[in-house]
Amino acid sequence: MSVRFDLAAHPGAQAYRLLAGLVVPRPIALVTTIDAAGVVNAAPFSFFNVMGTEPALSVLAPADRDDGTPKDTAANLHANGECVIHICDEAVAARMVECARPLPPGVSEVPRAGFTLTPSERVRVPRLVECPVALEGRVLDIRKYGDNRLVVIELLLAHVREGVADPATWKVDYAQYAPVGRMNSPDGYARTTDRFTLRFPSEA
């Protein structure tokens, strides 16, 4: 027996509460962007994932403020179309969460969270030194579906902490890489250190 939840009849906060609790663990993107004055914004998003590899694609869903105006990440992506997507491990998880603090436009989360900036190679947006993964990207498309904003980003270059991925095979070593994942809102997170394997089925 199952219980019905009518998502179409109850969009918004109720749908978010349920879906954000059910569809877990979600990867977290800590996204840096810059505004017209060159101020670096950093904000975490768990409505995010990679969606393809030819070209390499990511999808991100930055929301609006309560008054309907775009938050800094959305405004900056509209204005200049560039970003860096960081993946965070437990060592920087608290600093990542600090970047979710609502600050006035034009005020950077980066120094408050204790991150260090370094220049990127393909985009003007700087990346965060302390994160194990930084993916430089440019916007391919931005669409609105109701109150949802969907941003499609082409990933151009990956900066990966030494030891995490083999430069020859491009395979990831999970003994060296354990990103955190998002669980329920507002404060649920998951480690990725407890893993198991299942043999992939071969053709019949």
Keywords:
204 residues, alpha+beta, Pnp Oxidase, Chain A, seven-stranded antiparallel beta sheet, three-stranded antiparallel beta sheet, 4 helices, 12 strands, globular
Task: Set out the fold topology.
Blueprint: H1 13-22, E1 26-27, E2 29-34, E3 40-45, E4 48-53, E5 56-60, H2 72-80, E6 82-87, H3 93-98, H4 110-113, E7 117-118, E8 127-128, E9 133-145, E10 148-160, E11 181-182, E12 189-190
Antiparallel strand pairs: 1-11, 2-3, 2-6, 4-5, 5-10, 6-9, 7-8, 9-10, 11-12
How is this structure best described in words?
- It is a single chain.
- This protein has helices at 13-22, 72-80, 93-98, 110-113, and strands spanning 26-27, 29-34, 40-45, 48-53, 56-60, 82-87, 117-118, 127-128, 133-145, 148-160, 181-182, 189-190.
- The two termini are 34 Å apart.
- The mean pLDDT is 96.
- The strands form 3 sheets. The chain has a 7-stranded antiparallel β-sheet with strand order 3-2-6-9-10-5-4, covered by helices on one side. It has a 3-stranded antiparallel β-sheet with strand order 1-11-12, with no helix packed on it. The protein has a two-stranded antiparallel ribbon with strand order 7-8.
- The protein is globular, with a radius of gyration of 18 Å.
- It is of the alpha+beta class and 204 residues long.
- The protein has a single domain, classed as Roll (Pnp Oxidase, Chain A).
- It is built from 4 helices and 12 strands; from the N terminus they run H-E-E-E-E-E-H-E-H-H-E-E-E-E-E-E.
